[in-house]
From TrEMBL, chain A:
Keywords annotated in UniProt: Antiport, Cell membrane, Endosome, Ion transport, Membrane, Sodium, Sodium transport, Transmembrane, Transmembrane helix, Transport
This protein's name: Sodium/hydrogen exchanger
Pfam families in UniProt: Na_H_Exchanger
Extent of Basic residues compositional bias: 630-643
All residue ranges annotated as the Cation/H+ exchanger transmembrane domain in the record: 28-425
Gene Ontology CC terms, in alphabetical order: plasma membrane; recycling endosome membrane
Recorded name of the encoding gene: SLC9A5
Cross-referenced InterPro entries: Cation/H_exchanger_CPA1 (IPR018422), Cation/H_exchanger_TM (IPR006153), Na/H_exchanger_3/5 (IPR018410), NaH_exchanger (IPR004709)
Membrane topology category: Multi-pass membrane protein
Transmembrane segments: 43-64, 76-93, 105-124, 144-163, 214-238, 298-319, 331-351, 371-389, 401-423
Lineage: Eukaryota, Metazoa, Chordata, Craniata, Vertebrata
Coiled-coil spans in chain: none
NCBIfam families with a match to the protein in the record: b_cpa1
Organism: Patagioenas fasciata monilis
Ranges where the record places region Disordered: 626-658, 792-863
TrEMBL record, chain B:
Domain EF-hand intervals: 98-133, 139-174
SMART domains in the record: EFh (SM00054)
Alphabetical keyword list: Calcium, Integrin, Magnesium, Metal-binding, Repeat
Database matches in InterPro entries: CIBP, EF-hand-dom_pair, EF_Hand_1_Ca_BS, EF_hand_dom
SUPFAM superfamilies reported for this sequence: EF-hand
Signal peptide: none
Protein known as: Calcium and integrin-binding family member 3 isoform A
PROSITE patterns for the chain: EF_HAND_1, EF_HAND_2
One Pfam family this sequence matches: EF-hand_7
Organism in which the protein naturally occurs: Patagioenas fasciata monilis
GO biological processes: calcium ion homeostasis; integrin-mediated signaling pathway
Length: 863, 189
């Protein structure tokens, strides 16, 4: 237990003084260690480990300091630790799934919690009346009901921590998880009502108080939800206007969500509901409004905060449990509570499911019910609430604290440990990711259509009717109001980006000669040849590793047996061309992993459709007359050109240029260059169409034009650090270049895309004319390029190096930093998150310059 | 005024339906062609809605199966619908209806040539409808071969109702793309 040793040291050094900071760091370290040992975490849930670790730590502290120093302060818990977790769960809540099951979730959350707390409280009181408990426990019916209310709420933190690792099916998960989030309102109300009842004393409670209690439930829950919605609206509205201050976008998200929490807390509404609904509702608009980078930041920060909060909570639970001064043990109470919460949870679940199943097409079967009742974990919320009790009024507080701690530990550790084997043993339907069979795919689609048609004919509008209404309303008013214009057209833009990607992929397919035809027609004999191709050609490898949007057809290459191959191919064909009806998407939630959301999946679908169409057009145009070998080289030439532009600033750059492909296939050059030209111009055209009004894209185009220009006139030091903004472009030293016709045109064509297209074509052709002749002249001088295919990688590395050494000539240091970054980081970093950006990345690769990338990073450094 | 309808239909073997649903369906049915359908349904007049009326509904414009559905559910197979057919149709949607019934209707819808088997030509039709004729004949052919190969338990080259049901059992979420939400009836318009 390495982490424990480390902890011992820390605590010995400065345990007394250290605040949450060091602890947090230590805890995170511990977490890393836990996750390193897959074997441990696969059996024991992380929450158990953390609690145990906390126990150990608390013990050490107790031994060293002779008194318990730290414990989970309710204030800290409710003000700082809980909000991030709830926000995270709300924001990343699979909302479709959530609202699909909202009926069940609400039932379990409201009725279930009420049932649990009343029955548990009453049963404990009965136990007390029967004289089974220590007579020293001074508690009446109200005290026990109070205790019942706080102990009966299923805890979102604990449920998430355990269920996340169990991977039950989505419906089951969302029901338990949703319940744990939404029961907060009930818990808060019950807790407060009973607390005030206890304070008043049973004698002075009037009938009106009960009515008030019931009314306050509606007030608290609906009020909390309203606060959440209000802030979601505000948040969406604010992010609409942050175009010029991208940096603070993430801040707003967190700040407003937190303010929603505080506001709800302040007026004693349900704060958890407020944040949950704020998160659920704002997501759509916020995600559309904020920039890609902010989106990533929000995602990761939220996950980080939630994850660390969760860790700290469990840790502190462990630590606080050591504090014996607050304990008062009573075996009967503890055992009775444990027994009753398990029993009544199970009974409640069974009863409610009986009723609910009348309304569900897929009933929750017995096994689901077992998991649901067993998954009712209690956690830090109960603990914090019990600590909050006033000892003067609730005389049995110490007993309650002890019992709560035991219950929490029991549920988290024992149930947490056993739920996984239980789920396996009961063969609970897991969330499965198997590929559907062809039949399923086909018939499911057919059935979606059929059911939709039947619904339409008989005019039966169920749930979908209201959802449609809502979507209409959202589209008509909300989105108009809350999304900025550009984001509102986001779909179109995405479409364009994918369109570009399509063309790029299509080009690389053309690279492979007749394989486009064969792949589209599914002539299977071509598969082997494709694999052998990809082994031999570096460009292919490059594309495979570099392309974010990998075609399914490429995946097929890895499938071994012939039958599988056929199956996969079939699936691809079907998938690609199936006409999709309105459909539901599977959704999931995880605290530690960010899953691609619905949007992306839809885009993928569009992409597939699109790709299919592109392939068809390519098939028909017979673009690929040359042999596959020459095609491969063509692609490679694209790479080389990138190198050319890289080397062009070295003094003898010209002699390096164009050698490899020239030498390898002198005859083919002319043909392929023509094709290259047409291809790339076509690509660029799409580029223009798609994102002409976006800052980065125009920059890219602009840069694309300056490069050939600079090549034309002053080959060596004059690759100017690209100008990202209009203002910078106006700078005098930039003006020197403006004598080039090409460059001038770029000024004007920023507004008129058609002109730009022409200009681009011009620039391409000029580039071609520059690029080819010297290559032919100095073709055979450089023997080290004799085997271009294999040396591809080292070369570019070499050249990048030499370029690094010679980049002192550059006017500003920015370009230097930008360049060094551009060589290493962008690909890996950006690929993870920014699918749309991939297009421009790849663009940079296809179009014979790398400058766009420098440009982007220059911009970053400007920021 | 509407009481008799309920009596007529509730007394029949329409156990899946509630009174409210029948009333609503009748209203819907009547809305499609107010001039054809009488309000008083006591004598069970022989009224049929022509397919053209149903097929021209804007909601169905894009649906590839609209004609087939109407044909299957209409009594004489020509796509014209009586109120009975309407109720039948609704029964497929009804959550009370057993899975077998749904599977049966699904099968019937697929079975374009009404020979009680889904044979290759049926599948080809389905695939073509689903893909809006975007696939080439060879591709369709391949897909159909695959589908039959996958689900054909008795190896007779076509899918019987048993094959079909067997396949549905394997996919538990099948047939439930729409009605998985509880309380959907309570919010139905």
């Amino acid at each position: 237990m390495g982490q424990r040793g480390g902890w011992g040291q820390i605590s010995a050094l400065s345990w007394q003084q250290e605040g949450v900071g060091l602890e947090g760091a230590g805890i995170s370290l511990a977490k890393i260690v836990f996750h390193l040992s897959r074997k441990v975490t696969s059996i024991v849930p992380e929450s158990c480990l953390l609690i145990l670790l906390g126990l150990g730590l608390g013990g050490i502290v107790l031994a060293v300091a002779k008194k318990a120093e730290y414990q989970l302060e309710p204030n800290m818990f409710f003000l700082f630790l809980l909000p991030p977790i709830v926000l995270d769960s709300g924001y990343f809540m699979p909302s479709r799934l959530f609202f699909d099951n909202i009926g069940a979730i609400l039932t379990y959350a409201v009725v279930g919690t009420l049932w649990n707390s009343f029955t548990t409280g009453a049963a404990l009181w009965g136990l007390h009346q029967a004289g089974l408990m220590d007579p020293g426990i001074e508690a009446g019916l109200m005290d026990f009901l109070l205790f019942g209310s706080l102990i009966s709420a299923v805890d979102p933190v604990a449920v998430l921590a355990v269920f996340e690792e169990v991977h039950v099916n989505e419906t089951l998960f969302i029901i338990v998880f949703g319940e744990s989030l939404l029961n907060d309102a009930v818990t808060v109300v019950l807790y407060k009502v009973f607390n005030s009842f206890v304070e008043l004393g049973p004698a002075r409670i009037h009938a009106t108080d009960y009515v008030k209690g019931v009314a306050s439930f509606f007030l608290v829950s609906l009020g909390g939800t309203a606060v959440g919605l209000l802030f979601a609206f505000l948040l969406a509205l604010i992010t609409r206007f942050t175009k010029r201050v991208r940096i603070i976008e993430p801040l707003f998200v967190f700040l407003l969500a937190y303010v929603a929490y505080l506001a709800a807390e302040m007026v004693s509404l349900s704060s958890i509901l407020a944040v949950t609904f704020c998160g659920i509702c704002c997501k759509k608009y916020v995600e559309a409004n904020i920039s890609q980078k902010s989106r990533t930041t929000v995602k990761y920060t939220m996950k980080t905060l939630a994850s660390s909060s969760e860790t700290i909570i469990f840790m502190f639970l462990g630590i606080s449990a050591v504090d014996t001064s607050k304990w008062a043990w009573d075996t009967a109470l503890v055992l009775g509570t444990l027994f009753f919460i398990l029993l009544f949870r199970a009974v409640g679940v069974v009863l409610q499911t009986c009723v609910l199943n009348r309304f569900r097409l897929i009933p929750l079967d017995r096994i689901d019910q077992v998991v649901m009742s067993y998954g009712g974990l209690r956690g830090a919320v109960a603990f914090a609430l019990v600590i909050l009790l006033d000892r003067a009024k609730v005389k049995a507080k110490d007993y309650f604290v002890a019992t709560t701690i035991v219950v929490v530990f029991f549920t988290v550790i024992v149930q947490g440990l056993t739920i996984k084997p239980l789920v396996t043993w009961l063969k609970v339907k897991r969330s499965d990711h198997h590929k559907p069979t062809l039949n399923e795919e086909l018939h499911e689609h057919a059935f979606d259509h059929i059911l939709a048609a039947v619904e339409d004919i008989v005019g039966h509008h169920g749930y979908h009717y209201w959802r449609d209404k809502w979507e209409q309303f959202d589209k008509k008013y909300l989105s108009q109001l809350l999304m900025r214009k550009s984001a509102y057209r986001l779909r179109d833009e995405i479409w364009d980006v994918y369109y570009k990607l399509n063309i790029r992929d299509a080009i690389s397919f053309v690279d492979q000669g007749g394989h486009v035809l064969s792949a589209a027609k599914l002539a299977l004999p071509s598969m082997p040849s494709r694999t052998s191709m990809s082994e031999s050609s570096v460009t292919n490898l490059l594309r495979e590793s570099g392309s974010g949007a990998c075609l399914d057809l490429q995946v097929i290459d890895t499938v071994r047996s012939r039958r599988d191959k056929e199956d996969a191919a079939m699936h691809h064909v079907l998938r690609g061309s199936l006409y999709k009806p309105r459909r539901r998407y599977k959704a999931s939630y995880s605290r530690h992993f960010i899953s691609p959301d619905k949007q992306e999946r839809q885009d993928k679908e569009i992409f597939r459709q699109n790709m299919k169409r592109r392939l068809e057009t390519f098939k028909s145009t017979k673009h690929n007359v040359c042999s596959s070998k020459s095609k491969a080289r063509l692609k490679e030439k694209g790479r080389k050109k990138k190198n050319i532009s890289l080397t062009s600033d070295t003094p003898n750059g010209k002699t390096h240029r164009n050698v490899p492909w020239q030498e390898a296939a002198p005859v083919l050059v002319m043909v392929s260059s023509e094709e290259e030209e047409s291809d790339s111009s076509e690509t660029e055209r799409e580029d223009d169409e798609g994102i002409v009004f976006i800052a980065r894209a125009t920059d890219e185009v602009l840069q694309g034009k300056t490069t050939p220009g600079s090549l034309d006139v002053c080959p060596s030091p004059c690759i100017i650090p690209p100008s990202p903004t209009l203002a910078e472009k106006e700078l005098p030293w930039k003006g020197d270049q403006a004598d080039l016709a090409v460059y001038v045109s770029s000024e004007t064509t920023k507004i008129v895309p058609v002109d730009m297209q022409k200009a681009w074509n011009q620039s391409i052709s000029s580039l071609e004319s520059i690029a080819s002749p010297p290559g032919i002249e100095s073709g055979s001088q450089h023997r080290r390029f004799a085997c271009p295919v294999l040396e591809e990688q080292p070369q570019s590395a070499n050249q990048a190096m030499s370029e690094q050494s010679s980049c002192f000539q550059f006017p500003s240091h920015i370009s230097k930093s930008g360049r060094s970054q551009s060589d290493s980081s962008p690909d890996g970093a950006e690929q993870q998150e920014l699918q749309p950006l991939m297009a421009t990345e790849e663009q940079g690769r296809m179009v014979p310059t790398t400058e766009p990338r420098w440009l982007m990073f220059n911009r970053a450094s400007h920021l | 005024m509407k009481g008799p309808i309920c009596k007529v239909y509730l007394s029949q073997d329409c156990t899946f339906f509630t009174r409210k649903e029948i009333l609503r369906l009748f209203d819907r049915y009547r809305d499609l062609a107010p001039q054809l359908v009488p309000l008083d349904y006591t004598g069970k007049p022989a009224v049929t809605l022509p397919y053209e009326l149903i097929g021209s509904m804007p909601e169905l414009k894009d649906n590839p199966f609209r004609q087939r559905i109407a044909e299957v559910f209409s009594e004489n197979g020509d796509g014209n619908m009586t109120l009975d057919d309407f109720l039948d149709m609704f029964s497929v949607l009804s959550e009370m209806a057993p899975r077998d019934l749904k599977a049966y209707y699904a099968f019937k819808i697929y079975d374009f040539n009404n020979d009680d088997y889904i044979c290759k030509s049926d599948l080809e039709k389905t695939v073509n409808k689903l893909t809006r004729n975007e696939l080439t004949p060879e591709e369709v052919n391949l897909v159909c071969d695959k589908v039959i190969y996958e689900a054909d338990v008795d190896n007779d080259g076509k899918l019987s109702l048993e094959d079909f049901q067997h396949m549905i059992i394997r996919a538990p979420d099948f047939l439930s793309p729409y009605r998985s939400s509880p309380f959907s009836d309570t919010v139905s318009g």
